[in-house]
Amino acid sequence: MRTFDLAPLYRSTVGFDQLANMMDRVLSNDVAQPSYPPYNIEKTAEDAYRISLAVAGFSADDLSIEVKQNALVVTAKKGEESSEKAYLHRGIATRAFERRFHLADHVRVIGASHEDGMLHVDLEREIPEALKPRRIEISSGATKAVDQDVVDAKAVN
Predict the structure, then answer these.
(1) CA distances in angstroms from 97 to 140, 147, 148, listed in the order given
(2) Do 47 and 17 fall within a single domain?
(3) Cβ of 85: how many Cβ atoms within 10 Å?
(4) CATH of the domain at 106
(5) Range of the domain at 130
(6) Over the stretch 104-157, which tens digit does the pLDDT of each residue have?
(7) Separation CA 76–CA 98 (nearest Å)
(8) Distance CA 52, CA 42 (A)
């Protein structure tokens, strides 16, 4: 696999640290990506998303969801299980896990639900008013001149 050196990006840009860090994380092949539990990310509306994790065998009390520094962290720890059960085959994994999702700026968690072995985390992107596009009215030169004449006439009288 080809490796990329992002050092020139860090040296020649200002304010793009988050983008460079994200690219560094994605391109890094040193860290094995966890595959448990399986998950889906879906876009439910223009600015709404849903992350669904398959958490069969975990109750809502076993699961924890936290948001820290633009990262959504879902963790699970199974409570103590009685050793009286004797499994002939155990295919449902109930091992502890931590799954991290890096969130873009202005994305916040609006809710979570646990049903039928699935954990659904709903997200929404809220763009601040300062960043939303706004329409600027264009005035013609004729109305500006008329307004200035009215001001001059008032000043004379």
Answers:
(1) 63, 69, 70
(2) no
(3) 7
(4) 2.60.40.790
(5) 35-156
(6) 888 889 999 999 889 999 999 888 888 778 888 888 876 555 555 555 555 555
(7) 7
(8) 8
